[in-house]
Amino acid sequence: MVGTLAFFPVFLSVAVVVRNQxxxxxxxxxxxxxxxxxxxxxxxxxxxDNASTDDNIGVLKRITGEGxxxxxxxxxxxxxxxxxxxCWVGFESALGxxxxxxxxxxxxxxxxxxxxxxxxxxADVVFANNQIKPKQSFPYRSAYSIFHGLYRVFxxxxxxxxxxxxxxxxxxxxxxxxxxxxPVMTYRHLPATGGFNKVNLEYSSEPRASHLKSLANSIxxxxxxxVSTTHAPMRLVTTLSLFGAVANLLYSFYVMxxxxxxxxxxxxxVSTSLQQSGMFFxxxxxxxxxxxxxxxxxxxxxxxxxxxxxxxxxxxRMVRKEKLNVEVTDLTxxxxxxxxxxx
Length: 343
Description:
8-stranded mixed beta sheet, 12 helices, 48% helix, Spore Coat Polysaccharide Biosynthesis Protein SpsA, Chain A, elongated, alpha/beta
């Protein structure tokens, strides 16, 4: 960890995902600002309200009003999305040299200085993995284990430990992810699997709360992540196709041998068996492969954005603007002369 006197001359963006935290949102943002403000030259807090059903947006409007907290941008989503998707809303809008993704309910903001220290030394991405996990339902934990087991088999990486959600990315890596056709999906795995200079840190901190995650949404996102990030599932399908072709070819030889060696074969059995063994299984596999390709292409081209920002507003005070004292002469009187003094 970095001492309290550590200072980094950078602009830091912090993406904070919140939902139904009207009672604690001011405390959360004040705590984050208290850690970040003395740590860097300048900062912004990008708050993503993940379709709260309470008055979270109303509280945020008061917090960002006159006399409120500075350097805050708020994006209110109209429907709840996965936390990775919500985080990417903040990353798309971030202006900082480094961007932090944090879930204030599960991640410890006091661990940020150590992460930023490693990022400032040249790491493209710094991950922080909390060893104390929030409690989830048994079905969710089961599906979680199955997904990460499959991901380890197909991709050779433990995504849960190698790429946790609490992370610091530098501007170069953020810009690289922005170039991908599906950055919301790429953001989750690419920093850990793309060969970038990364650092993985671990800490133990009791989560503030355990918010249950949607099993259906998690299964949907996990399936898409498996299909979109590795060729292994499709390679498994092609292997099964090859196995089916060979097995059915051997079965066809068996049917022909029976036809020649046994005189009392039922009428039509040979032709029916050859037709079914030669076509049905292979056609089913071909349709499965085509279906997966069509589903993936449809998701990438026709589904549209995964989120929609219904409200957007910023703090009345922005500290970096207060650092500028700009004076401009009357341009109507002297259209070609403008004097700017910056203190």
